[in-house]
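Structure in, sequence out. Go:
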């Protein structure tokens, strides 16, 4: 077990923030997460967190995954005090952090996310993992499933993933998996690119549009300047920022502000039934 006292970290808020679809509420104060083939359970009591792993694994993987080296207080304190809407959003979601997630999983996940809500996205991804991922034992001796590698999906019929409830998104995931498996798209090269170049490459993938490309950049490449605009964000912009979001003030970390706004619209305004 690894114990840490962490400011501006709330595992419940992160789980519900729409950036990760393999995080689960297990019981009161306890959540599980599956990432990069690893399984972790986390207990949280206020600022005190217990990570069910050894110190080496925490330092080598989970510390970076949860972006724990970053001081989010600076982002929070930078908010314009005259922007009442954003002040409310940041206060409400002050425990959110931008996770450092695996690029292929984020690419497939946000292809699946289109015209979908979070609960359905989670089910689709769980179905996909159980059918095409690798079964592994968790510390309790129960099974969990890794996210399938591109090669596991690349040569399926394009409609095959409809059986996992992906619907028309099936062909998006299969074609993208094939592009990666056959080397037409090299994720390792995209990982080394700046935000605008990476986004341009992602837009070449079948089924990837502006919003999905920005989601992948933010949650899979940790480009904090990415600012995905889904239905929740567009509604907030229309209502509160008719002249556009003040991105210049938050230059370089607009995506962090986007997550506070998204979570406020999703949870604070009780709008969780709308499509992602």
């Amino acid at each position: 077990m690894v114990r840490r006292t962490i400011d501006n970290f709330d595992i419940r808020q992160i789980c519900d923030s729409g950036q990760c679809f393999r995080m689960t509420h297990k019981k009161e104060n306890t959540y599980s997460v599956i990432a990069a083939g690893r399984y972790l359970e986390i207990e949280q009591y206020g600022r005190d967190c217990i990570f069910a792993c050894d110190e080496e694994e925490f330092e080598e993987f989970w510390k970076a995954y949860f972006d724990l080296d970053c001081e989010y207080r600076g982002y929070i304190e930078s908010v314009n005090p005259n922007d009442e809407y954003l002040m409310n959003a940041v206060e409400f979601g002050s425990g959110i952090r931008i996770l450092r997630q695996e690029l292929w999983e984020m690419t497939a996940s946000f292809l699946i996310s289109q015209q979908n809500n979070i609960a359905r996205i989670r089910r689709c991804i769980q179905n996909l993992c159980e059918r095409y991922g690798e079964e592994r034992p968790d510390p309790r001796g129960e099974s969990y499933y890794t996210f399938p590698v591109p090669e596991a999906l690349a040569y399926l019929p394009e409609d095959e993933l409809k059986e996992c409830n992906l619907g028309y998104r099936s062909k998006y995931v299969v074609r993208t998996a094939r592009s990666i498996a056959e080397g037409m798209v090299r994720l390792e090269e995209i990982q080394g690119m700046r935000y605008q170049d990476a986004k341009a490459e992602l837009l070449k993938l079948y089924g990837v549009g502006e919003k999905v490309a920005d989601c992948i950049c933010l949650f899979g490449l940790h480009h904090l300047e990415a600012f995905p605009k889904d239905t929740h964000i567009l509604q907030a912009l229309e209502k509160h920022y008719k002249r556009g979001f003040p991105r210049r003030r938050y230059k370089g970390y607009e995506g962090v502000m986007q997550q506070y706004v998204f979570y406020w619209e999703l949870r604070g305004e009780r709008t969780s039934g709308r499509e992602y």
